[in-house]
Structure formats: C-alpha cells, structure tokens
C-alpha cells in the first residue's frame, strides 16, 4: 500500500455537485453532563457533507473518525447534544473540507416524574432528534424535535352522546424548534409543552386512583388532533416567547374506531399569517 | 461456463445439518379465484428446506424458480393460498430434494362491508399469514394467522368511575389456526371471529350516527386484553368445532394512558387443561 | 340524533390555521388499466387538507368517503394513479371546502422481466409513491418517487487491491420527479433509469450463468453511492429532457464492511448550479 | 375511591386460563456494573405472567412497579442483566401471585475494539435479548440472544468465475444460548463467537489499509449463509463446551444481486442428531 490511490479525488463521470453525502444509521454511545446530572444516550447518527462537482467521492472514514474522536472522548465533558454537534462538525471540517454539512442524532431521552395521585416515582421516555446545519458564511442552524406519546379524546362524539361517551386513543405529538445555539430550549421544557398540550399526561405506572385522575382529565379536556396540534404551537410560542424560533408541530392519533390514523400538521409560519 | 462447479454439493467444513435454509422477504404477485371472486394479493414469502450435514449449501435459485413457476403461471387458476402453498412445495421437491420444508406467505387481505347505521360501503383490511410445513412421512400441516385492528375499553376504570368514564385504545388481535388442509377455516370466518371478539368493530368510514353506534357498543362491552384474548379462543373453538384445530390468540393494546402496550397470549392447549 | 352537533364548525381555543389535517396509514385496493394491462395495487394513503383558523376541526369521514367513492368505484376505469389522485382531491373539494390539499399513495409496483442470460421470466418489485398537491390559484403539482434495490461496488477498494478485490453490498436508490400532470414520466421509465444507474441490475431469479453475468457487470462498473446518485440525476435529466421536471435522487448503501450505511443525496437544483 | 372495585378478581365470561399476560414495549434505563466497568442500557421490556381461568385480569400496575423498584433503584448495584431479571420476577411474585412468568429485555450493547491495521479505537454495536422463564417446581431458564452485523461472500460465484469475482453483502447473524443462570456465557464471548464465524469482522471506522485487510479476509474465507450458520453452531459448541446449553443460530443475508434475502437456521438439537 505504498502508493495508495485516492479514488475519491478523481474526476467523476458526471460532474454534478451533491448536497449531502456521508454516513447514516451509525450507532454509538454518548455522555452528557448538565446541571450536575449525567445522561447516557445511545444516538443513531447521520452525518453528511456536500460534494463538489469535480470530486468523485468523499472520504467516509474521516466522518466516522470525527464522530468517535469527539463523542467517545471521555476526557471531553459534553454539556449539551447541541454543543457537541457543533464540535463534531468542526472536527469533520478539520479532516475534510466542505462548504455545508448536516448532522442528526436521534435517541430516547428519559426523565423522572411522579404519578399524579399516589406520587410513585416513574421514568418516562421521549424520543429526541437534534439536527445541526453549518454552512460557510451563514450562522449555524439547530433544530430539536421531541416526540411525546399522549392521547386524543373525541369532542365531537362526546357532544353528540347523551351519556358523554366518546372514543379515546393513543396519539403521538412532535414539536420541532429551529433556531441558533443560544435560542435552543431544553429537552425538558419542550417535553413539558408537549405533555400539557394533550387531554392528559401518560405514565409508566398508574395505580387505580392515578388512573382515575388521568381518565377524568381526559374527559374534562376532550381534544381532536387539531386541538392538540394548535395547543403545542400556542404553548411553545408562549413558553419560548423571548426566542425567535421556527416552531412546527405534528400530531398523529391511532384511532380506536378506525384501522387508519388521523394527522394534523402546523407551523408558526402559518400561525403568523393569521 | 462449460464445466460449472456445483459448490453447493461439496462437503462443508462443519458437517452439521440445518433445519431451514432458503429465501425470505421475497415479494411477488398472486391471484386467487374463489366462489366467483378474484383476489389480487402481493405476498411477502419465506421458503426454506432442510440441508443435510454432508451438503455445503442449497440451490437457492431453484426455490425462486418454483415460486415463479407456480404462483405466476396465469394458466394455472389458484383457488386458495393453502392449496397453492402445497403446489409450490411440491414443485420445489421436484427441483430440489428435501426431507422437510416450510413456506410462509404474508399479505394484506381486504373485504367489503357496510357501516353499521348509514350502511355505507367500506373496504376493511386484515393481515394474513399462511404457513405450510411438509415432512417426509408426516401429514402436511397448515397454519393461518389473521390480524385484526380492534380496541379495548378498560372495565376496571369504568367500574371505579362514578360517571362510567374509562380509557379506550386501539388494540391488535391475532388468531392462529393450525391443522391439515381440509380443516382450514376461511380467512373471512377467522376475521369474523376476531371482529366479534372486540368491544366493537372498526371501520374505514364512520358518519356521526355510525360513530355513536360504535362508541355505544364499546361502552356496553368493556374488555381488558385478557377478555378479548379469551373471546377469540372461545369463539373460534365454537365456530370451528367440527374441526380439530390448534388455536392460539394474541391481543396487544396500545394503551392511551401509558407509553407502553399490554399483551395477553393464550392457546387451546391451555384452554383444554381447564 | 335529530340535532346533531357539528363540533368541527365551532371556534377553536387557539385560532391558528393548520397546514395539513386528515387521515394517514389508510389502506385500500386500487385497479389501474393502462395500455391494455391491468394493475392491482394496495396503496397506503395519506390525504390532508388545510384547516382555517376559525374552524375547530375537519370532517374526517368526508375524506374517507371521497377515497372510497373514487378509488373503489368499479364502474370508473382509472388509467393512472396520478389522474385518479386529482379525481380524489376534486371529490374531497366537493364534500369539504379547502384552499389547499395533499394526497399521497405508496404501493409496491411489479414488472415482468427476463434474466440476463438464461432468459427466465421473473417479476421484479419497486416501491412507488405518488404525491399530489392542489392549491387554489396554482397549477396542480405531482411528484412520483420510485425506489429500486440495487448495489454498490467500491471503486476505491478495487483500485488499491492488487487482485482487484473489493466490497460489494445491497443499495437502495430513489428517484423523485416533480412537475405537472402532463410532464409525469411513467413508473416503468423511472424504474428503467434507476436500474441502469447501478453497477448491475438485481433479479428475483439468477441461474449460475445469469449470476456470473451480473457479477461481471458489477466489477466492470464499480461505483460509490455518489456515482449511483449522479447517474440517476444525469440519466433522468437526459431521459426526461423534454419535460421541465424537478428531479431528486437519494442512494443508501448497506455496507458489507460496516454496521452503518452510507448515503448520497442530490437534486437538479444543485446540478443546474454547476 | 373508598370502596375500590377489583374488577381483575371477578369471574371472567370465558373461564380459560391464559399463558402470558402483562406489559410489552416498556422502555426504561438500566445500569450494570461488572468487572469494574459500568454499562448504561436502555432496554425495551416485555414482562408477562400466567392468568388462572377464574380471574378476569392481572393487576398490570404491579408489573410496572416491580420493574421500576428493581431496575431503577440506584442503591441496588446490578452485576448482570440475567441476575437482575430474576430479581424483577421475584419482586413481581411478591406483589402478584403466578405459577409461571416470562421476562424479556432487548437492548443495544456496545464494546470497544481496534481497527485491524491502523489500530484506531472504535465502538461496535450488537443487539442483545435476555429472556427469563420462571415456573413453580422448575429450575429458572435463561436465554441470551446476540445479533451481529457481518457479511457473506458467495463461494459458488467465486469458484465459477475465472477472475475469482463474486458477490458480497451485509448479513445478520444471531446466536441464542439457553440454559440456567450459572451456565450463561457473557455477551462479549457470544459476540466473539459471532464475529469469528463470518468471512470478516465489520468495523465503525476503516482506513484504507484496514479496509484492504477486511476485503482480503472476506475473499480468503468465502461463505454462504449456511457456512456462517454452521460456524456459529460449531464455534459456540466448542467455546461453551463445559456448559450444557441449547444453542440456536440464524443467519440472514441481504443479497446484493437480488431484492430478497436468504436465510439459514439451525440448532444443536439438529447438530446432535448427526
């Protein structure tokens, strides 16, 4: 291997520049230390950079090396996934020139809470995606998306039913906030917006009195997916009002009376139009 | 390619016989004509045969050829997936010796129905798996599994609530019937057992009066996953009582008050024990 | 139910307009007759419309009814999924006012072909998504995406290896063409672009001589994901040159030497920049 | 809620005993300390117990409580997932009578290694499932399953090709070892059996010289899925020869020349027959 050939640097057959080239479905370990707490995460990562028209390929191994060198360096304490994302992209740039790049990390995030009546300790899960875009001459952009498993309670069926019976079902809500590093809300504050936007919170443990509390909340706050979607947008706009964030929400409801799902999508771009 | 080498027939390094070797995740088209109706299915297929200890490998292409020759032969009218399965395995045996083999086809199956009050036409989907095992010296065995999307309505929460409020959610029920070719019930009769075993049927379309009908059925028949699972076992045993089938049921409920699911599994083997 | 309450028409708590509200993961049957051939498809459908700020919800059942009335009407011969999509959206508009709407159908599409040397008949599968956007005052937009399972063959490893050994793996290519109804290429022509853009075609059946043909093609045309992605863009631009389509390509390679995947994404917007 | 009704204890409509009733898809955090190393895992859990014919339902919340009390107790150091599993089942038994029960934990497990030539540090992932069955009057049974992403290299194509060209692809191997607590091999020793059973190991990072090393190993050790499956069985039998374990292996190959996969399944039960 004395004269290693750098095929990647050759001219490609079709001189077309590509937007995003890199690795995906890359799994690793990640430790974040914040406010005295330590979070052990196992993200699934996509890391891509642009490829100029005159280069045949990118050097994939340099992307993987950059991730391992930054993420798996135990001497290097990371205080947020967002900061760490920018460090990874900086390291990639040191090893491999690019004019723009994108990094995405998806992982489950757990938080401790208490059941509403019996006050039992539980751990609840949300799914988090942190995306980062860097581009020469532009400010770095970050998007955090949080998914929360909640529920919907049909107000239309309830209003039309003499006994106030209705159909209830699991629903999945997702809030995405996009902005710059200093504008980013915490995962916990975004999860908090989500859980308050549904008819009732969901819990890993519910004793009978807790269950009754949750069921009563549900029936006192019947909501369509449209209602939950608007709640997420309105609450996040209010909660993060000092920040100029792009906010988007998607709510999907796994209908108990149908085999299909229902969905509602909105964003503050639309919101502001009204 | 005059002297083609049959590597598959060589001695393997480790002379260990293998139970099932073949292809999986194979997609094709399938037409069934039965009782004057034509069903176009797009099954995902797994087809495997045993491999004796002294052979290095099986001839994979002969498995694929057998499937294409039987399934995609337009001159050959198929009247049931079960009969066709036995034909495929017979064709494989002609092309490739084996002492036992297994074939599995998984597909969505649609049936026409009407909504309960407004009598609107809808098409409803169930997922079907047909498995066939053939073995030298044994009778051929067939298993049909049908999955139906229904719901559960918590009777415990309802009984404890002064206003009879409860939590409701989507649930998935699966019935498996195993026996010989002449014992096999139709997909429709198995789907019928499933849909009657839930608190209420689910529909692709529900106008307000239909929706009220479904919601009232739900609340009049509150059921745990355990209740639905036992209903499936009891109803299928009764419906197919003239047949000596092995019956198994699994019900999973996508809880609206939790982020996790609940599950109940049973079979007539257990049932008979009582 | 004399005085049915239309909860959907009430004022919502948060007067925010939503972009897309409707149903998703809706499965049904679809028959297309084109050029004397009949295609039976089982699409998974998402159908959404905008929701004005002053309305609490959309009337979901009208969306489902529109799909069933158009798609499942046997008297109504459909000649393309694209035309049918526009008919569905027109029917929704008759039943439910909107200012913009989106429809998506995803399904497996099969085509007959022959193996390269032994000329055996096989059926090959591609996954197709047809999306349609209609908006008051704008021309209808359609996007067709075709996914094809091919392969990559690392040219860098091959060039550096004295015996021209390299690593090979399955890869998934996706071509999306977006334009107006009259500009849309056929599924077959898009699938053709895809299969010619990989080192070699893939087949459901390959006898030994066919397999050797495919392997030789692979090694004579080693390609990175970047090469395949550019081939798709260049070939589709050339093949559909009389049409002013937006073209985008994604190629993902399931690396045989890594546990992660590699990915390349590009579009003609970028292409034109060069 | 003074007189809470225990609906679960009522007589069911159908007095059929059920095999397994409980929770599934339950996500939580888990810390294992072993040999001075700490492992942070995020398992997906299924926990089920039998339901006697005369009881309407199980008390689901007691299952969840038992998991949280054992797994999330920070004062309680856990030294293996297997030991912890038995503790969880013991805790469930304290809270809820049963005659048999099953617990399953599925999680990604990471281990540090070095690339073969340049000796770069990488973290590699395997997927682990630990299952435990307890039954009155029987010894506790444990099964550990490890999944490893490797590759296959077709020896048939290579032997028939004058230039020794062949097709290569990603493959997934799974080894399951079932026995009693004292017989269980470590995850690392099982992963080691798996990675040595493939043509070559896979790595998160490979510099050009590492890549050449891996490619040469692949081509020097061409293997069918059948070969890999037999290697796993033979190597695990040899590695864990002092233990009387039931061993089973499944290998699936994501063919680069086909759109479908190929599969081989075997077990020591079959092995011993030869």
Distance between the termini of chain A: 65 Å
CATH topology of the largest domain in chain A: Urate Oxidase
Biggest sheet strand order of chain A reads 1-4-5-6-7-8-9-10
Question: What assembly state would you assign to the polypeptide chains in this entry?
Answer: homotetramer
**Number of helical segments of chain A?**
7
Largest sheet of chain A: 8 strands, antiparallel
Q: List how many beta strands of chain A DSSP finds.
A: 10
Indicate how many domains the architecture of chain A comprises: 2
Helix content bin of chain A: 25-40%
Q: Supply Rg of chain A.
A: 22 Å
Low-confidence stretches of chain A: none
Along the chain, the helix and strand elements of chain A come as EEEEHHEEEHEHHHEEH
The CATH superfamily label of the largest domain in chain A reads: Urate Oxidase
CATH level 1 class label of the largest domain in chain A? Alpha Beta
Which overall shape of chain A is indicated by the principal axes computed on the Cα atoms?
elongated
What labels would you give this structure?
homotetramer; 274 residues; alpha+beta; Urate Oxidase; 2 domains; eight-stranded antiparallel beta sheet; two-stranded antiparallel sheet; 10 strands
């Amino acid at each position: 291997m004395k004269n290693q050939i750098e095929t990647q640097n050759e001219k490609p057959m079709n001189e077309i520049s590509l937007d995003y080239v890199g690795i995906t479905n890359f799994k690793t370990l990640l430790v974040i230390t914040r406010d005295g707490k330590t979070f052990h995460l196992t993200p699934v990562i996509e890391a891509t950079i642009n490829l100029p028209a005159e280069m045949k390929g990118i050097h994939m191994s340099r992307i993987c090396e950059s991730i391992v060198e930054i993420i798996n360096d135990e001497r290097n304490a990371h205080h947020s996934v967002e900061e760490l994302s920018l460090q990874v992209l900086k390291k990639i740039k040191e090893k491999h020139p690019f004019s723009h790049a994108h990094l995405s990390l998806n992982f489950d995030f757990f938080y401790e809470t208490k059941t509403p009546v019996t006050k039992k300790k539980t751990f609840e899960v949300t799914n988090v995606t942190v995306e980062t875009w860097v581009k020469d001459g532009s400010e770095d952009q970050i998007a955090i998306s949080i998914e929360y498993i909640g529920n919907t309670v049909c107000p239309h069926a309830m209003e039309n039913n003499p006994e106030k019976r209705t159909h209830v079902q699991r629903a999945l809500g997702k809030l995405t906030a996009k902005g710059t590093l200093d504008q980013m809300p915490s995962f916990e504050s975004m999860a908090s917006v989500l859980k308050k936007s549904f008819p009732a919170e969901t819990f890993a443990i519910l004793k009978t009195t807790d269950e009754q509390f949750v069921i009563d909340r549900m029936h006192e706050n019947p909501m369509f997916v449209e209602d939950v979607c608007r709640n997420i947008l309105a609450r996040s706009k209010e909660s993060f009002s000092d920040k100029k964030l792009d906010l988007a929400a998607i709510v999907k409801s796994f209908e108990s009376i149908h085999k299909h799902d229902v969905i509602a999508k909105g964003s503050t771009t639309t919101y502001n139009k009204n």
